[in-house]
Amino acid sequence: MIKSTVSQENQTRGTFDFPLEYYFVDRTHPRYQMPFHWHIEYELILIDSGAFTLRLDDETIEMNAGDAVLIPDGFIHGGLPHDCVYECAVFDFARFLEETTIGKRSLLKVLTETALRHHVFPAGSKPADIIQALMVELRNKKFGYELTVHGLIWQLMGSLVDETSRNPAADPHPKDWRRIDQMKKVLRRIRKDYATDLTLQDLADEANLVPKYLCRAFRDLTGRTPIEYLNYYRIECAAEKMIVTTEHITEIALACGFHDLSYFSKTFKKYKGMSARDFRNNRIARSEAEPAESNPN
Questions:
Q1: What is the reported pLDDT for 30?
Q2: How far is CA 203 from the centre of its chain?
Q3: Are 75 and 29 in contact (CB under 8 A)?
Q4: What is the pLDDT of residues 212-253, one digit of tens each?
Q5: Is the distance from CB of 265 to CB of 272 less than 8 angstroms?
Q6: CA separation, residue 182 to residues 185, 186, 188, 216, 220 (Å)
Q7: Is 177-284 in CATH node 1.10.10.60?
Q8: Is the CATH number 2.60.120.280 carried by domain 20-166?
Q9: Is there a contact between 32 and 50 (Cβ–Cβ < 8 Å)?
């Protein structure tokens, strides 16, 4: 089953002894475009091919093949892939930190000082190479891969400590935390009630803002108006339902908040580049081909 790339703040990651979730995302993934979200864990993103526009709070970062980023907890982020394949690993670093006392003081100092910063690692840099090796282990899942992943995470953090000690620059992008918290409330409401008849006024009330100002602030963060993002999110949810359920497309459209089926069809094609039926059929065909590809004999 495909796992959603949309993270809930209280979602459990991985297992008790391996608190990490891995996602491989290509054009066939129902959440190919990364919806805006945030969580209490750290996230690593590696661009395998193509390009990716990452929006991180109020900043836009252009990433290319081989580039990687470490996103601390609490940051609102989402992204737009451009003919892109990318991988994500979301992990509860607090759990990893509980397992050792080695270098803990240095690391806690760095994490405290850099809590308001993300870290972008260009292709070919030492941290990017470590993240690439980590993703290979998560993708292949060979026997004992968990031990290797643990070691690579600590190697990455050691590299981060070294980088920060040599370049203790302040965050060049000061945050308007009050506005970001307001946008989190709107995103939470959309995620919770996307299937209902949400209005712009409902979302403005959630953030305690007038609609005009909400539209401006929300567009600054996401690149879309609140209603545009609501419809985009509904399509992302519909696409996932088409893959993980056998419900009729009409039922899925209604369950995702679309009461006009022609508008659903038009909106689906706008965001996915094909009809809903073609999207489902393409995914079914790909799933049927995967066993044969993995066992050519």
A1: 80
A2: 22
A3: no
A4: 999 999 998 888 999 999 999 999 999 999 988 999 999 999
A5: no
A6: 5, 7, 10, 13, 13
A7: yes
A8: yes
A9: no
CA distance 180 to 58: 8
Angle, CA 118 vertex, CA 40 and CA 108 arms, to 5°: 65
Domain boundaries, the chain: 20-166, 177-284
Spatial distance between the Cα atoms of 54 and 27, rounded to a whole number of angstroms: 17
* Residue in the structure block whose two tokens are 């009630």: 193
Phi, psi (rounded to 5 degrees) for 106: -60, -45
> Judging by DSSP bridges, how do beta strands 20-25 and 119-121 pair with one another?
unpaired
Q: For the chain, how many residues are written?
A: 297
Q: Which residues of 73-91 are buried (b: 16+ CB within 10 A; e: fewer)?
A: bbbbbbbebeebbbbbbbb
Whole-model pTM? 0.77
Residue of 164, 156, 118 whose CA lies nearest to 137:
156
- For residue 139, pLDDT beyond 50: yes
Backbone angles phi, psi at 35, to 5 degrees: -65, 155
